[in-house]
Amino acid sequence: MSTAQMTRPPQTLYVTLRRDELRQLKDERDQLQQEVMRLRAHILQAQLDQPAGTQPALC
Questions:
Q1: Tens-digit pLDDT profile for the chain (59 aa)?
Q2: Name one Pfam family in it (predicted).
Q3: How much is the pTM?
Q4: Phi-psi label, residue 31: left if phi above 0, alpha if psi -120 to 50, beta otherwise
Q5: Euclidean distance between CA atoms 13 and 54, whole angstroms
Q6: For residues 56 and 47, is the Cβ–Cβ distance under 8 A?
Q7: What is the distance between the alpha carbons of residues 39 and 36, in angstroms, rounded to a whole number?
């Protein structure tokens, strides 16, 4: 015998941010995106510098 479960609609969460907090979060996001791009470029350059058939060392 199975029991019926009531399903609830998804709830919405509202968050209040001050303008300065939002600006700080955007700045942090931009810095992280730049760091990701820098690391991807570093990995790509390392792959291009490797002779064919060799595996790069993991740090």
A1: 566 677 888 899 999 999 999 999 999 999 999 999 999 999 999 988 887 666 656 66
A2: DUF6026
A3: 0.58
A4: alpha
A5: 50
A6: yes
A7: 5
- Cα end-to-end span (Å), the chain: 56
> Where do runs of H (alpha helix) occur along the chain?
19-49
By the 8 A CB rule, do 56 and 46 touch? yes
CA dihedral 34, 35, 39, 40 (to 10 degrees): -30
- Residue linked to tokens 């919405």: 12
CA distance 20 to 43: 35
Question: What CA–CA distance (Å, rounded) separates 50 from 59?
Answer: 15
- Looking at residue 57, its amino acid is A
